[in-house]
Amino acid sequence: MNFRSCLLAAATTGLLPAIVLPRADAAPLKVGSGNEAVIEPAVIHPDETPCVVKLLTKAPFANFNPANYSFTPPAACPGPWAKVVLSISISLNEGRQFDRSGLLFLGGVPIWFGTTAEPRATLAPYWSFEKDVTDYTALFESAQTGYMEIGNIVNSTYTSTITASATLKFYPVTPTAPAPVTADMVVPVPTGGGLATLNTGADQLSLTATLPTNILRASLQLYLQGQSSDEFWYFCVPNAYSGELESCGGTAYREGEITVDGVPAGVAPVYPWIFTGGIDPYLWQPIPGVQTFDFTPFHADLSPFAGVLSNGQPHTIATSVYNADGYFSATGALLLFLDKNATTVTGSITRNTLKAPAPAIDAKIATNNGIATGSIGTTSKRSFTISGTVTGSAGTTLNSITETSVFSNVQHFGVSGTEDLQTVDQTTDTTITTSSTGGGSSAKQTVTLHYPLNIYYDFVTGKSGNSTQLTRVNLQYQGSDLQELAGSPISQGLLTDAIKAQDTLFFNSQFSVTGHKSQSETATYTRTGTGSPCFKRTLVSTFNVLSTVQTGC
Q1: Rounded CA gap, 470 and 474, in Å?
Q2: How open is the CA angle 25-26-27, to the nearest 5 degrees?
Q3: DSSP of 394-443
Q4: Domain ranges, ordered by start, for the chain
Q5: Which residues of 5-16 are buried (b: 16+ CB within 10 A; e: fewer)?
Q6: Each residue of 115-154: pLDDT tens digit?
């Protein structure tokens, strides 16, 4: 679910995120093809002809060298704009290569974060996608430098070069396509921009700055991506069991902890993105996992702290990942909405019930004759309210956020010298209600997020030393958004992005893959919402070839 400021809600209520509903026509999907099949549709475009600014054209990525570019606002389409759309195309030549993480920065702000596909000896994958980046309008109003980074290695073993192009499309304002209300200032996080590495729970993604003295609202956009040992954090167990269960440590609980000057300020659930090389690369060919190529950031509303952040003193906004265990890549941006009729505002926090996390562990593991069996459950329930006042040119407003997050990860094990059986049943359910009251008006927005993940993994070694690995994965991203003004609904949206995949791998005694069978994927994408047509798409693959494309509603 892609979030940005809803025109009507932002103009009348000042609340922050709303669902952006994509357009119904995406890149062509060809039955019988093994090329990347992206299920997420493209962005809805205004009818006007845009001004196009090229950022990069077929930039090669081979040895961790970034591709630099310069950006100048389009003279023929001066801002503000009705919409700004980022288009990215990526391709690889045939050969061998890992999936790679990629980022596109402008002025230190990440305007894209995702990963790439893995090629094959006889397949050179290519794909494209779009992203609504209108939220960053303030960033595009002045000349900036930027760079794209795709950490790729090319040598005699890993032979495939990645090539990428990127453009921005600026749509002019018209009577039927007015400019939405967007942030007046976009600040990169961490300080100075770029990417932070969070190896432990003590490491932080942080911004330290003296901010404007007239902040009315603030939103922190966060990307928290698991890497290395934390790439499969949902498989992890308490350290005391990691040896006998042959699993990573640190438990299966990860969560973003947001602070303002050391004071708890928010909680960010972590989405379990699975890369195209994850668990079994054949699982994700040709249909990648949910959001694999284009991550959706989590938006944390920091508006209750607007008055505090406006006091003219340096402030530190930081995020850590609870139980990070080597490591998380983290980046983001702070969006600030300013009082244009006042140079200073005042305010304070009036309520803050957010406490430190305290997940519960229920371990029932038995070991007998070298065989470990049983289950480990990790659960957490978080519920808090943060409220704060801000007094500006229009009087005093009370901004509040109430968030409830319920996390559950239950794993079952059967581990011996010849078999490693592990199942994961995980859910993350988050409900966020933001409200703004003042000046005789009231507004409320309720966003719900549901992240189910189910994995069946069974690795068996036979007497000959050959092995098989059976994997089944069910991954979903569900979201809903309801906005109300004076107690009446003014907009709502629903979105589901889901995939089910299975495959069986075969290994020889040297642990080299010798083949696979029974590969299949079924992916569905649906959305409905105020002011946009209903959209539904289903993709099915069989033995790594797209076999079904159904689009409609």
Answers
A1: 14
A2: 135
A3: TEEEEEEEEEEEEEEEEEEEEE-SSEEEEEEEEEEEEEEEEEEEETTEEE
A4: 2-46+177-552, 47-176
A5: bbbbbbebbbbb
A6: 999 999 999 999 999 999 999 999 999 999 999 999 999 9
Q: Dihedral sign, CA of 110, 259, 272, 385?
A: negative
pLDDT beneath 70, residues of the chain? 1-27
C-alpha distances in Å from residue 212, one per residue of 306, 311, 313, 404: 10, 8, 10, 31
pLDDT for res 25: 41
Q: Cα(84)–Cα(80) distance, rounded to whole angstroms?
A: 10
Concatenated DSSP letters of 45-78:
--SSPPEEEEEEEEEEE-SS--EEEEE---TTSP
The pLDDT tens digits of the residues spanning 500-542 come to: 999 999 999 999 999 999 999 999 999 998 877 789 999 999 9
Burial of 537 from C-beta contacts in 10 A (0-12 / 13-18 / 19+): buried
What is the dihedral angle through the alpha carbons of 84, 151, 290, 171, rounded to the nearest 10 degrees? 10
Q: pTM of the prediction?
A: 0.93
- Predicted local confidence at residue 409, as pLDDT: 98
How high is the pLDDT of residue 27? 59
Closest CA to 260 of 125, 388, 96, 76: 388
Exposed/middle/buried for 49, CB within 10 Å: 0-12, 13-18, 19+?
Answer: exposed
Contact 330, 225 (CB under 8 A): yes
Q: For residues 528 and 494, is the Cβ–Cβ distance under 8 A?
A: yes
pLDDT for res 323: 95
Helix (H) or strand (E) holding 309: helix 306-309
The architecture CATH gives domain 47-176: Sandwich (2.60)
